[in-house]
Structure formats: structure tokens, C-alpha cells
Amino acid sequence: MKRRRKTYAGIVGRHHPLVPEEEPSESTTIPLASPILPTPAADGFLGVEGDDIRSATTSMMGHNMDEIVRIKRPVYSQHQFESIYTEEIEEAALREHFIDTVYIPPRPARTCIDLTCQYLPIIVTLHHYRWREYFPHDLLSGLSTGVMRIPQSMAYALLALVTPVHGLYTALVASLVYCVLGTSPHLVVTCQGVVSLLVGQVAKEYLERIHNVRLHNLTHTTGVNGTSADAAIKEQLLGVVLMISLLVGIFQLIFSVMRLGMLTNYLSDPLVNGFTTATAIEIILSQISALLGCEVRIPEDTPPVGVMENFKLIYFAIVSLPRANTYTLIISLVAMVSMAGLKRLNRFVKRRWKATVPTELIVVLMATLISGLTGFQQLGVEMVGRIPTGLPPAESPPPVSMDSILLRDILIIAIVSFVITVSLAKKFSLKYDNDIDANQEFLAYGAANILGSFTGCFVSTSSMTCSNLHESIGGRTQVANLIASGLVLITLLFLGTLFESTPTCILSAIIVVNLRSVLWQLKDLPALWRTSRIDASLWLVAFFAVIFTDANTGVMIGIGFSLITVIFRFQWPYCCVLGRIEHTDIYKNIALTPNAKEIDGIKMFRCEGPLFFSSADHFQSCLYSMTVNPRKLILQKRRYERRLRSLKRFLSIVPNGRRQNAAAVAAAAETGAESDATISVAPSTENHFAPMPETSDVHHVIIDMSCCSFIDSAGWATFNRIVGDFQEAGIAVYLCNCRFAIRAMLSNAGISRIDKRAIFLTNHDAVCAALSDMSRLNERDWLIYDSHARQRSEDLNHRRRHFVSRRPSDASETGQSRFLLSSEDDSSSD
Fold first, then answer.
1. Residue 65 pLDDT > 80, yes or no?
2. Architecture category of domain 575-780 in CATH
3. Angle 71-73-74 (CA atoms, 0-180°, nearest 5)?
4. Contact present, 25 and 784 (Cβ < 8 Å)
5. Where does 92-224 show beta strands of DSSP type E?
6. Rounded to two decimals, what is the model's pTM?
7. Residue 263, C-beta contacts closer than 8 angstroms, at least 6 positions apart
8. How does strand 47-49 pair with strand 70-72?
9. In 3D, which of 449, 422, 427, 448 has the Cα closest to residue 437?
10. What is the pLDDT of residues 636-646, one digit of tens each?
């Protein structure tokens, strides 16, 4: 009887978009190695078809029929596709793309002019500068930011534990160097609160280590008329700060030469935002002594030692309120309220007249004028003191004995200061479509810090408030920073003495008010939690690490946790099982798409991550648990075969205990001696009977490699072991959507056990090939079964005729059957 081929409706059939139309009476299958069909240009058989699409009956009749396209093409394995369309994997391409796992873009040949313009961006800026269009905006921005950075730089110098004039030096030198070497037209480089606090903490901790003493409240007594710290400590503190600036610049210069601008990618925005927010709170707490006008001291034996310093400071600040200087406290509160009101007014003025009110400068000038007229110094209010006029002298930093802790902290300052800058520069570059070269930025900041260390400057970085002001006013280029640097230079040359009677609590009030924009980052946490809980956890870890310890330790904990999250995402990537949406070639995650259904006998698995030494075990465990575990099938098969071998030892046992071979049993059956030839099994063999091993309904496992970017040697070893397990269990493994890197390694002989013919272009190609392969296997099994049955029937008839011709006519049918059965057992055992 002619046997009909088995069809798979919806997968390989008449109305499927990937299978050519056939006559309604015939069912269609696509073989695994299908012949190459004619191209669409030859007879229009393949390709995109849209003429009779309206007559097709599918489950998408609710869609606009003009948007439905039927595509006809053969099932392509990767090997067939490459042979037709000449996709080759050459050794030169592998060397250029580093096997597509690390891509280094080619660098074109550059002339001396190109190199000069690259390392001196100011040349390009001035060459393309539009004076009539750009200069009015740059002039207004330069005047506004210059007026703002004068009091801010003086205030942030207190955080670095140096006198305010060193803040003016930093604002002048760093800004000039960045104007020449920087690549961002919107950054304003000057003193910054977080970095200044880090510099001050590192310098203070270093002096405490080498002197083995506890230094208290250096921020409050750094001024000229401070009395609690002697001149020797001040001189050593300044030397340490300048040496920190020099080493930070050297580290940044080395990073630029080694092209390590990519290091900033490991400090994500949530980490930086959480760190800066917590550091802003720590900066505010560090100004409590200056705002209260009295020293707030934490006893050394206050438990727990070394941690919870910020909470201790809050407690002892509350305890110290009765000792606060009333005039200092009133001046501080009035200054903060005045600046907050002026900044609110400033937003209205900026929207109305595109100008800005110099809030900090107005408050500083008013406080300085009132202080000079009323004599605040006689009331116990601390003043800034003498500010030397003129340019800073060029001197080399004094030598400082280094230790590992100091070098570690300096490296942290170098990276953190640069990351803060790059994160702000990227925000402006995305808004204005500017290119930022991270390695050139390293060069600019390294040169600014190295040159600044010889001119009395501490570590500089971009100022968020000044940069936002420069961008909001409409500043176009770094020419605005040149104008602002001119204002700072005029202040150093002629106006420095005007600020000698400025109360230091005014500078502390400026620090506190300007940290408002940093503290507002707290409102972004709920949205970040809804977007990504891992990023929100990173934000919280960095925040609380700084709050409960200090800035240096907190940033190390944050970086460590950031690396852990990266390892966690790569080591345990998401894995899923894919199913097909009916009447389509679309395959989706069955856990997320209810309409996606699995295909009988096929498991499609996808791991959304690379397969390397860290994720190999996770890949294997997820594959076995989500599809079928071949090792269980192999163990059951081996256990069954072992019991069968044990059972054969006790086969053909006669009642008297003598072992009989198959020939004796056949002879006994031929003579008709039924009682002597009865085959029996000893009772001891009952335990050797084993049930048939369990078989799996899965005949093909398809692994979707679309999300796998690369596989290393350990991953290939695991992958080969997986393929070997499935093959031993009788399950075929197909691959689909393989990327260039994986196919490049597959082309190397001896790496993979996957046959090239088992690698397909898409998921649907692999499914069609798997079903076609299974159909052929079923037909082959039926053909083998039919041939064996036909052969057995012919042998039976032949033996029956032979038996009847040689035996008497009274031979029983039972004897014939026993003879035939024993002969079959004998042949099967042989």
C-alpha cells in the first residue's frame, strides 16, 4: 500500500508564506538539503508576491490586506547561503575585526595639520568662528560665568583646605588650559565641590597618618586669621594639595597617552549621580562649623570608630548649637535666603531678557560692604583675610613621601573628576550634536592639573552651575571662557584686596546654595527604579556607601558593586524557550507571548548573552532544564543496556540447571521433544528484568544564537559537550541566526562538532528543515519496518515449506512455530 507523506499544517504547507504554492491535492515538505530553486528574476517563482494575496486565508484577515506580503524562498542553511551569495570569511577580515568581538575602527592617515588641529582644538574653533553671530552670546556668557566663578572658586578652596586665593588661581589656569586643549564648547572648567572635598579629605588623612594625630576643623581655620592650626601644618597641607594636583595630572596624562578614555564607561550615570548626591550632603555637613561660627569636633573614641562620621557630625553639631556665634549664624541664614530668592528671580530675568543676575557676587559685595562698615571681625565673625595681588609664582610642589594609600586615593580623584566632566560633556553633546574625544579630554585635564600644580592650583574639573549658565545664556564656544578668565585675572591683579573683609560664612553659604542642583538628583530615583532596578540599586549603594563611610571609600564600594552588576548580567544571562505564532514565521518567548506555541517534537532555545567561561555552566543548565536533559536519557539507556547484558547470562536455563545453547534448543524443537526443550528462567533472574527506558518526544533542539555576540574556548568546549550529549541521546541539534564571530570560529576545523548543514539563516529555516528531516526519518523507519516484515514473512513461508517437506504429515503447528521462533532468537542473538 502506498504510504502518504506526513504533513505539518501551518509549518510546511499550502498557505505558509515561506513555502511555494502547490496543487491543493498535494502536500509539501521542504527537505533538509533542498535544491537551489530558480531566482526571482528567472521565472518569478521566488521572491515577494503580492498579486493574489487577498485570496489567501490566514488568521490575519483583520489587518489591512495591502500591508500583507507573501515571500517565497527555499530553506537556506548557512552553508548554502554562503555558497550562493559568496559570503566568505577571510583571515584578513578576522585580523581587522579581531573576530568581531573587539572592534577597533580604522584610523585614516593624518597629516601634521590634522594632528595639530586634533591636539589643539582652539585652532579649529577660531578658524570657523563667526564673529557677528557667536561673539555677542560668548561675551554675555563670559561676563556672567566670570562673575559667578570668582566667589565660587574662593568658596570651594575652603573645601580643599587651602586659602581662597588658590581657588582664584585654579579658576584662571584651568580655564585657560582647557580653552586651548578641550573639545567641548559648553564646559566651564574651574573648581568643583565634590573634587575639592576629595582633595581636602585625602590631604587631611595623609597628614594624620604621617603625624599620627587628629586634625580638627581645618576648613574653619585655613584663613589667615585662624589660630587653631599652626603655620607648619598649613604649609605641609598646601604642599600635599599641590602634589595631589601634580599626580592627578600625571595619571590623566598617562590615561590619554594609553587611550584609556574607555575607563569612564565603567562608571555609569547612576553611580556618578548617587555618589555626587551623597557627596553634596557631606559637603554641606563639612560647612557646619563655618556656618555656626564655632568648632564642631567629633571625639576620637566615639563609636563606631571610622564609620558613621556624618551622623556623628550632625549629633555634635546639634550639641554645639549653644556655643554658636549668633552673628555668624544670622549672616549665614540671611545670605542663604537672599541667594535662594535671587536665584528664583534670576530664572524670571533669564526667560525675559536672556540675561542673568550675578547672585553670588551681589551677596559677596553686600556682605563685604556691610562687614567693612560695621566691623564684623570685632563681633567674632571670621574673615577671609589677606589676598595677595598679582599672578601666582611658578614653583614646583614640595616633595612628599608617598605611600600606597595616597596613590590609591589620587587615582580615585583622577578618575572621578574626569567622569564628572565627561558625564556633563556627554549631556551637552547629545543636545547639540557635538563630538567629544575622551582621550583628548584626559589630555586637557592632565595638562591643566600639571601646570596648575606649579602655580598654586588644586585639582580642577567642570563646574555644573557655571556650565549650565554658559549653555542657558547661549554661549557658543570656549571664547566665552577666555573672557571669563580675563575677569578672574583682573580680580587677581587689582581687586583682590576688596574681598579681604568678606566673612567666610558667606563663602560657605554659597557652597550650600549651589549644591541645590546636585541634591535635586534625588527626585530622579523613583523614575530610575521604574526603569531599571539594577541601576537604582547601584545609585543607592553608591549613595549610602558615601553617607556611612566617606567619599573615597564610597566611590570604591560603588565601583565594586558596578562591576558585580556587570558580572551578574553576563554570568547569568536571561534564557527562554521560543514558540511560533500561528500562520507566521515569527518566533517569540512563550513565557511573554501567550499566542506563541511550541512545535511538537522541537524545542527552540535562546540565551540572551555571550557564551564564555563565566556563563557556560549557566547556559548548559538552562538548556537542559528548559528543553530536555539528554544526560538522563543517556543514563536510562545505559542502565537498560547493562541490565540486558546481565540478563543474557541467565538466558536459556533448563530445569536441571544445565546451560543450553540455541542450537540445542532448536534441535529439541525439531525433534518435537517439547518437555525437554522447554525454556525456563531461573527465579534469581527476576530482578534482572528492567523496564524499557523512557524516550523523549523531542527529536530536534534548535538554539537561536541571535543574542550571542561571541563564544570563547571554554564556551566551545561546553557547546561541544552539549552537542555530544544530544547526539548520544538521539536528538539532533540545529543552530540559527549565527553571527559573524561564531561562524568564523565554526569555519576553523576542529573547534565545533556542529555540521555546517545544521546551521540555518533564521528560526523558520531551522524549523522547516527539522520537520522535513523528521518526516524522512519516519518514512525511513516505516520502510525498514516494512522490509523487515516482508523478509520475516518470506522466511516464514520458506521455512514452513522446508519443514513440511522434510517432516511427517502429523507435525504439529506448535512445533513449527516453536522452530521458527527459536531460529529467529538464534539469528537475533548472533
1. no
2. 2-Layer Sandwich (3.30)
3. 150
4. no
5. 189-190
6. 0.70
7. 255, 415
8. antiparallel
9. 422
10. 888 888 877 77
